[in-house]
């Protein structure tokens, strides 16, 4: 089992122009919210005492960031996205660069499609073309019905809107997680390995029951991604759930370093 202590945070900045820069020694605070919705996940990152030239590069067009966090032997990416706003503030001896970041934000806002499909085209083919036009890496795409458009179909406008349409019609959820597109049926999970959460693997306290599932806190774990299955085991519970919302929050030097998770009961195969 991985050792869940000795916290680490690594930030890689990709300016719109120039070489990427990586930081692992500076103080970094973050709060990243991730869910199953198609709207880009937001993240707030504060980096302390960057060099003046680096602060300037953050404000160049199309700058992006990769945030990795974890522990001594388990540092993984928890957020990837485009920088949408930068504010530099002086607080005592520190200059703090506060970044607002959106997962897949530029492609989500700007990708368009103008294309017609012939009679008999399958839903899977249309969905594949939309994902290709979005221009982001493809992740899990599962549960797409084996249906077709008898009269063909024409798509026009923003890709995100057409993806919303086709997924809503077919009981699917699409989202962007760490810059990767995933499509999963409502109530079902990706085919990734089930995450085991217990007091021995990072679970903090006891889960609280909600209307649709449970919510709980864990020591920070990047593997907790919306759409994945998690097996929650505590003194009073042992059940399988679908992660639908995660908030990763922490500070590389002090305070909390955890993941807050909301889940829903995982739909059994073959049940509606």
Describe this entry's structure for a reader.
This protein has 272 residues and is mostly beta strands. Helix content is 13%, strand content 51%. The chain is built from 4 helices and 20 strands. The strands form 4 sheets. Strands 1, 2, 3, 4, 5, 6, 7, 15, 16, 17, 18, 19 and 20 form a 13-stranded mixed β-sheet that branches. It has a 3-stranded mixed β-sheet with strand order 10-14-13, with helices on one face. The chain has a two-stranded antiparallel ribbon with strand order 8-12. α3 runs antiparallel to α4. The two termini are 37 Å apart.
The biggest beta sheet reads:
13 strands, mixed
Average pLDDT number: 92
Class derived from helix and strand content: mainly beta
Number of helices: 4
Task: Please give a handful of descriptors for the protein shown.
272 residues; mainly beta; 13-stranded mixed sheet; 20 strands; 13% helix
Summarize the structure.
The protein is mainly beta and 272 residues long.
Give the SSE layout:
Layout: E1 8-14, E2 21-23, E3 28-35, E4 42-48, H1 52-57, E5 64-71, E6 74-91, E7 94-102, H2 105-110, E8 112-117, E9 121-122, H3 123-134, E10 138-141, E11 148-149, E12 153-158, H4 159-169, E13 172-177, E14 180-185, E15 195-197, E16 203-209, E17 214-219, E18 229-234, E19 237-251, E20 257-265
Parallel strand pairs: 10-14, 15-18
Antiparallel strand pairs: 1-2, 1-5, 3-4, 3-19, 4-7, 5-6, 6-7, 8-12, 9-11, 13-14, 16-17, 17-20, 18-19, 19-20
